[in-house]
Design brief:
Layout lengths: L2 H10 L4 H10 L4 H13 L5 H16 L3 H10 L4 H8 L4 H18 L5 H14 L4 H11 L1
Helix pairs in contact: 4-6, 5-6, 7-8, 7-9, 8-9
């Protein structure tokens, strides 16, 4: 296997160790060789789970408006250690986080046709918590915004 191929794979966008292992396995690279390649990629700065987690958190929060729960689950699916996940999630500013919840609530309110108030509120809660935001924060923001 050409080492530049996997370097290009890592250089294209941030990758985590898990994604690189999957790619190498799809390329039928033997396990001892995978370990050697991973070490070299880390030593040369092509692979860094902390850098990946930070980029992933910021991208998913700002671009996709995902909440902490959804981001955490996605990072766990990529086998990122909890300590790295916690540090990356702390990078989200609390004010921006709450502001995003408020924006999502307002957006959903505009989309929902008027009907029973219970269904109206329930749809908003389902939508915003489905994006990975904490139910207690969503409920507090609904009460706050009226």
């Amino acid at each position: 296997m050409d080492p530049r191929q996997i370097e290009r794979f890592c250089a294209y966008r941030e990758r985590c160790r898990f994604e690189v292992i999957q790619k190498l396995q799809r390329l039928s690279v033997p396990r001892p060789e995978i370990n050697r390649i991973l070490k070299r990629l880390q030593d040369e700065g092509f692979l860094d789970d902390q850098r990946f987690a930070h980029a992933f958190v910021m991208g998913k929060f700002h671009n996709n408006q995902w909440g902490r729960y959804k981001i955490r689950n996605e990072l766990r699916n990529r086998q990122i250690p909890d300590s790295i996940i916690d540090a990356a999630l702390k990078e989200i500013e609390e004010e921006a986080y709450l502001q995003t919840i408020g924006e999502l609530i307002r957006k959903k309110r505009k989309e929902i046709k008027t009907g029973k108030s219970f269904n109206f509120r329930e749809k908003i809660i389902t939508f915003v918590t489905g994006k990975g935001f904490e139910p207690d924060l969503v409920l507090a923001m609904i009460k706050e915004t009226g």
